[in-house]
């Protein structure tokens, strides 16, 4: 029956490019082979794609390519090897796009460490693409940008020069009018497994942590006006924890914005906002925003901060990434005057390296601005 269904599947015009060539340095072992629910991570991703409407699957291998091919069934999949995988994800993306079939209208760029995306979500992206013919289709969950991203063939050529650890977002800025944002009810578009800690968290809580959680979780101050200075931190990693700790010592009320954070994850935070919509936050006399999402939700969070006329807006990013974001926001119509108000790199230059040092430099800059 399965074979008959495959044979009758209507052509979608979309190929899937699976980026599986990385070195898995944060995992410490080839994460493509790490097992979740009894199956290697990459095999789970391929199972999802085979259950979707994509016409072909192109998998880009690099590090540990021989071992992966020995241990994972790759029948019916087009395998290409990226010999330059050490140069970053951009080379794998370029290699994959160049291997897509000539009859494909577009390509779905799939990350090999995102096993929780549903086949129905992929089909939804394909349907929206077929109906509206945008250049880029991006899934959004609760306002947060996710993956996989679907690219029209007209933008393939722009990926030819990619290198380094950068993906599709490199071309988003030059196609602001050609991007279709598709809201999806699938938190899997945001969830990846990068580290052993991610695997342990999945084993403890399952793939749908936050699925049933309220958009706004309060520790105190439930819905009331914030009388203390208000710090909004986008992200929930070690930097967010350090920022929260120092901010509380300085008398700030802190809100952490992240789709899967819990109040216990960030001690000292007054609330967790799991929807990227700052209009849900209580009013405050002074609001300071630090975007530390490490490239995941940077542009969207900055737009939210500018809408609320925050007293201070900072982006944790290097100069190159900051310039890419400025270009993207400018293409969306953000004025140069507003862009000039974004502090990037964030914080006072003290040679900060650790999350605690970076947090200290940012809070010092905020304190200096408040006292002017």
Account of the protein in words:
The protein is α/β, with parallel strands linked by helices and 372 residues long. It has two domains: 184 residues, Alpha-Beta Complex (Spore Coat Polysaccharide Biosynthesis Protein SpsA, Chain A); 159 residues, 3-Layer(aba) Sandwich (Rossmann fold), CATH 3.40.50. Helices cover 30% and strands 19% of the residues. Strands 1, 4, 5, 6, 7, 8, 9 and 10 form an eight-stranded mixed sheet that branches. Helix 7 packs across helix 11. The protein is globular and about 65 Å long.
Features of the shown structure:
30% helix, single chain, Rossmann fold, eight-stranded mixed β-sheet, Spore Coat Polysaccharide Biosynthesis Protein SpsA, Chain A, seven-stranded mixed β-sheet, disordered N terminus, alpha/beta, 2 domains, 372 residues
């Amino acid at each position: 029956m399965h074979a008959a269904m495959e044979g009758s599947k209507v052509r979608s015009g979309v190929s899937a490019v699976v980026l599986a060539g990385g070195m898995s340095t944060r995992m410490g072992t080839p994460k493509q082979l790490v097992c979740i629910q009894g199956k290697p991570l990459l095999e789970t991703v391929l199972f999802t794609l085979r259950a979707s409407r994509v016409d072909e699957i192109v998998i880009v291998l690099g590090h540990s390519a021989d071992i992966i091919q020995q241990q994972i069934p790759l029948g019916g999949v087009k395998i290409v090897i990226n010999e330059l995988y050490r140069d970053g994800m951009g080379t794998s993306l370029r290699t994959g796009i160049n291997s897509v079939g000539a009859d494909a209208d577009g390509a779905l760029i799939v990350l090999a460490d995102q096993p929780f995306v549903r086949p129905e979500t992929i089909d939804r992206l394909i349907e929206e693409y077929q109906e509206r013919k945008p250049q880029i289709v991006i899934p959004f969950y609760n306002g947060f940008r996710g993956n996989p991203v679907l690219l029209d063939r007209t933008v393939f050529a722009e990926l030819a020069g990619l290198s380094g650890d950068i993906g599709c977002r490199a071309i988003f800025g030059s196609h602001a009018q050609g991007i279709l944002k598709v809201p999806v009810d699938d938190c899997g578009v945001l969830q990846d497994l990068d580290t052993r800690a991610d695997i342990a968290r999945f084993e403890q809580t399952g793939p749908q942590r936050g699925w049933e959680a309220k958009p706004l979780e309060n520790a105190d101050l439930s819905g009331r006006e914030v009388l203390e200075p208000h710090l909004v931190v986008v992200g929930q990693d070690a930097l967010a924890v350090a920022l929260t700790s120092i901010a509380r010592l300085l008398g700030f009320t802190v809100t952490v914005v992240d789709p899967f954070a819990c109040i216990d994850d960030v001690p000292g935070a007054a609330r967790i906002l799991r929807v990227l919509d700052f209009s849900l936050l209580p009013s405050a006399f002074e609001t300071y925003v630090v975007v530390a999402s490490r490239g995941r939700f940077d542009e969207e969070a900055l737009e939210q901060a500018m809408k609320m006329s925050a007293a201070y807006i900072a982006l944790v990013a290097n100069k190159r990434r900051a310039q890419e974001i400025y270009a993207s926001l400018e293409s969306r119509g953000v004025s140069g005057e507003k862009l000039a108000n974004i502090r990037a790199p964030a914080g006072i230059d003290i040679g900060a390296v650790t999350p605690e040092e970076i947090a200290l430099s940012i809070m010092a800059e905020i304190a200096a601005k408040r006292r002017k």
